[in-house]
Amino acid sequence: MSAVNNWNSTQHFWLIIFGFVVAFIPRFVPLMLFTKQAIPEWFNEWMKFVPTSLFTALVVKDIFIDSSSYALILNNYALMISAVMVIFVAYRTRSMVVSVIVGLAGVFLLSMFL
Question: With 0-12 CB in 10 A as exposed, 13-18 as middle and 19+ as buried, what is 63?
């Protein structure tokens, strides 16, 4: 990190331009490809599962893995019970707002008592 602090303004400018290009290309190329041809139905069906799988991966990592040592945690009861509550509420209500509120309230209350 100390090498970046010694850079001049031109180097910072090119770093910003490079960052823009790296962030822009993965968004622009699929946009150009999919505007000229129809997206297959199987791809649309498959893409419906991406948000759920990403969300599950993030939540499971936060509940069961310690971020400092990457060790498996099985005694984080407040988060585990809250996760089950959120799954139940999300399945029953199909409401993101209600699920988030139940999850936050569950973590807050259960962490006070467990």
Answer: middle
Cα 83 from Cα 103, distance rounded (Å): 7
Task: Kindly report the backbone phi and psi dihedral angles of residue 41, in degrees, each rounded to the nearest multiple of 5, phi listed first.
Answer: -65, -35
Q: What percent of the chain is helix, strand and coil (3-state, nearest 5)?
A: 80, 0, 20
pTM: 0.60
Q: What rounded mean pLDDT belongs to the chain?
A: 89
Mean local confidence (pLDDT), 74-82: 93
Domain borders along the chain are: 2-37, 50-113
Identity of the amino acid at 85: M
Instruction: Quickly tell me which residue has 């399945």 as its tokens.
Output: 91
Distance CA 102, CA 82 (A): 8
